[in-house]
UniProtKB/TrEMBL annotation:
GO cellular component, one term: nucleus
Keywords, sorted A to Z: GTPase activation, Leucine-rich repeat, Membrane, Repeat, Transmembrane, Transmembrane helix
SUPFAM superfamilies linked to this entry: RNI-like
Listed name of the protein: Uncharacterized protein
GO biological process: nucleocytoplasmic transport
Organism name: Adineta steineri
One Gene Ontology MF term: small GTPase binding
Transmembrane segments annotated in the record for this chain: 63-85, 91-112
Record's keyword annotation contains Membrane: yes
InterPro entries referenced in this protein's UniProt entry, alphabetically: Leu-rich_rpt (IPR001611), Leu-rich_rpt_4 (IPR025875), LRR_dom_sf (IPR032675), RanGap (IPR027038)
Keyword Membrane assigned: yes
Amino acid sequence: MGGTVTKVRTSVAQVQENMGTTLTTATNMINHLQRDASNIMANLAHESLESLRGLTARMDRSVFLLTHTVMAIATAIALSFLLLLTSFSPFLRNIVWLMFAILCIYMILTYIQHSQSALLSSSTTQVEEKPIGYQNTLLENIIAQSNIQSAIDLTGHQLIDDDIKIVVIQAIIKKKCTQLKLGQNRITSTGASYLADALRQNNTLEVLSLWNNNLNDIGIRYLTDMLKINKSLKKLDLSGNHITNIGAMHLTNMLKINRILTHLSLSRTKIDDKGIQPLANIIQNNNKTLQVLSLSGNKLLTDLSVNALINMIRGNQSLTKLWIDDCELSKKNQAELRKAEKSKKNFKLHM
């Protein structure tokens, strides 16, 4: 009876876990949609306002030209009558011709001045219409102080997804950094997609740390798809993110293909035995490059995964370190894991 109650509680806990993950994912998607919709409406409003301004400017110019043209014609007619009336006096005719010349010069200067004002107004409008993108001067200055192909540490700077665009351009592309530490920030799956796009063909970054961010399984999918192509990234820290068995499946599929990654940290995630077992099996049978794996602090890792972990330790030739401390393992199974550790040379188990 007690076993049945325990199973029921476990099932309920798993359902709650899955519901929580689903709600988190849905909330993130809704937030992204709301932000995108707001940006679209703002852009439409801006474009409509600028179009109205342009139309108003063109109307003002047309009215100005029409008014001054009518005035010039009326003045020219008046001067013509004056020429007729002053035909008896050469002196008066010269004065009228002088007035006519002054009128012509005035009209020419007026048109030139108005044309320059219109051109300046147009240029100013174009400058105003140029979108001002997201800026983070402090972040740019920090990256600017780093050397080419060096380690750039942005841990705990409260970076958001928009900051990752700056990081991609300034740190990854321009500085060609070899290590990028982005732990303890507020990066979500959107930021992960920016990083993944930048790292697909990158050949300089070797270490990427994303511990304690807001990544979920969607973000892990972006990163694992990138790791199937990337040829330089060796160390990846995803500790403390909202990774479930779905994310573990993406990681498992990636490790079938990737032959570059040597260090992978999945500490303090929400991966349980159903995610750990296939991951361990792939590392045992298909992966020959991973050297260090951390599963510390995964409270959903229990005795059900022990056999898979033992087989992984004994069957994989490249793995040299495994962290599984602070997990839900019994003393008996911890002893079995210690036996597996001793049976393998140059291997260290942290438990």
